[in-house]
Amino acid sequence: MKKEFTYHDGQFFLNGEPYTIISGAIHYFRTLPEDWEDRLKKLKACGFNTVETYTCWNLHERQEGVFDFSGLLDIVRFIETAERLDLNVILRPGPYICAEWDFGGLPSWLLKYPNIALRCDDPLYLDKVRPYYGQLLSRIRPHLCTNGGNVIMVQVENEYGSYGDDKTYLRKVVDIYRENGIDCTLFTSDGTCRWMLSGGTLPEVLAVANFGSHVPQILTLREFQQDRPLMCGEFWSGWFDHWHESGRDQREPDEVMREVNTFFDLGASFNFYMFHGGTNFGFWNGANGSANDYGPTVTSYDYTAPLTEAGDTTPMYYALRETIENRTGKKAPDIAIQNSPKAPYGKLTLTESAPLFESVDALATPVRNAFPRTMEEIGQDFGYILYRTTLTGPFEELPIECGEIHDRAIFYLNGKQVGVYERARGGDTVRIGLDFGETATLDILVENMGRINYGVHLLDRKGILGGVRLGQRFHFGWEMYPLTMDDLTALPYGEIETQGKVPAFLRGKLVIEGTPKDTFLRLDGFTKGFVKVNGFNIGRYYNPAGPQKTLYVPAPLLRQGENEIVVFESDGYEVPVIEFTDKPILHT
Description:
This protein is of the alpha+beta class.
């Protein structure tokens, strides 16, 4: 049956009745599908009536023209789960989403087009947006409230006013929505600065505002649309961390509740960002900053939200439920919820090793070119890229110089590590000289630590930019191995013979008796890399940098009996022992 969601006279209406949106953000792609119902039940049991989510173009279309809406990306299943719980949905399809997500959700293959202009009325860019929207919106359309579903609002772009002011572009996004049958309420969201709202709003589309405190600033919206409802599209309940930071303190519930009460005092709707943050699995985290001030986001997206990364309730959660009950005069739904049990599975010795340089041909086919190319130029999105070449003497001792490195490089001469360089932090100067008849193999392993997701520096190509020189002389003739690390099944493991030999994949078997439980992985003594659990990449670790010290391992990834644990360590480790504990350590 068709639902009617409208607004007039400064108020939202659902089926003719006044309606205040009390929404919480849960990103389907940051939480395993097996846990969606648990997180949504907890949202409902807290007194919320709506869930909000972005969509991630870069995962739905990792390769141009190849679409994936399965498993972790099954947004229809997420929407239907919310509908069974009588939760409405706010959808934010971008195409750009920010979200502390790689490239703000834009697919990296856009960058193989040298003349493309992002997020504006560029015909090439819009031609790439349309097929994705066609695939996505055809799945969403049956679930619109206008078709009897639970999707009540769809966002146009995202915080566009902090980036640009191309109203023609915004209207063309609207046109694409309408062409694909999206006939529900549309909206834009921006910060409350006039320059943001003037750049990102359309007079014919509802505008909402994003902020984390000082709720009365929402009244700035009245300067742009006097007769429309007030809504905060993102009320920031916490914040996120970058590597090399000390971590954040939890916001005090009393402080946040004062802000929430002000929303009710003003008759405003709001969306808690985040209600449940989840995890930046794989290599999907974004980064902030610029070419020279670069901060990649950590694996956890806990966000100090009302629900933790593992979906546990917090004091903030219960304060929210009490406030919502008091202000709405309605008791929160009586839904049984509980935190998941956690297990300290203890220490695990990794017994097998596959050194990267001995295994690289099992992982990737090299691309050969005179000039070192970026990941995007050779069609790679995530992971690492290995640049390999042969240097031939004679030449005096000279420094190895790279134009730019995005983002972290380890240098090897004849298989021996000789230097590390990290973007915005600097590193070692590597020098080499060769005599007549001498040769040396130079390997440069570059890690993409996350594309910039916000601001004017979105064109963040990865790998080596601008070539490699010996002194002032460019060196030509390279092999480039695209190491996405998607499939590691072909790795030729052997027993660990040389302690600490890196870069390498280390493997062990975790044996679980009974039903698996959530757990957290510590890698004390390891330096930097990522971990796969039964083939699923649970994310990066970076121990010297901090603040995050554990990786979340959701129970659905585990199974009774043997579990394959693979650690890729790029820099060095003390002993091949890791530990599964029942408590997270996110802030040092």
